[in-house]
Amino acid sequence: QLQLVESGGGLVQPGGSLRLSCAVSGFTLDYYDIGWFRQAPGKEREGVSCSRRGGGTNSADSVKGRFTISRDNAKNTVYLQMNSLKPEDTAVYYCAADRLRWDTHVQAMCVSNLYNSWGQGTQVTVSS
Question: In the chain, N or C: fewer CB atoms in 10 Å?
Fold first, then answer.
């Protein structure tokens, strides 16, 4: 059974940084595509940053240059380093995993309905 557990959320001032972690179990991270998604109140869930199992990442334009996704396959953990945080980054952040079709382009992988296994989410609040 695939399990994903996010941690690292919290309250941070604008301009600050946070690192989210997603610990996975029940599967080998190497063989899965991973995504970070977020959902703000009253808004749809959106893709933030995603990592292809064979290599390659994709991030939303709104976070490019500020957020970085990385994975440590040996630790079965995925990270989202978030720098220069803005109030509009406030949301519940989720990690998700799946094995996408082999021909899914990395630029098209950060779509929530492609993923079937989800964590419970961690709240990130950016406020002064």
Answer: N
Cβ contacts of 51 within 8 Å, gap of 6 or more: 33, 34, 35, 57, 69, 70, 71, 78
Average pLDDT of every residue of the chain: 96
